Amino acid sequence: MAVGIFFLFLTSLGMLGNSVLLCGFIIADFSGIRVKKPTDLIVKHLTSANFIVLFRGVQQTLAAFSQNYYLDSVSCKLTLYFHRVSRGVSLGSTCLLSVFQAITISPSNSKWAQIKIRASRIIGPSLGLCWASQLLLYGFIPVYTTDLWGGRNVTGIKNLEYCVFMNPGRLISTLTVILYTCNDFMFLGMMMWASGYMVFILLNHKQMVKHIHRSLSPRSSPENRATQSILALVSSFVIFYVVSIVFTSHLSVLDITTRWLPNTGVAMTACFPAFCPFLLLRHYTSIFRLHCTCSYKTTIFTHVF
Question: How far is CA 129 from CA 40, 117, 176, 256, in A?
Answer without folding.
Answer: 18, 20, 21, 36
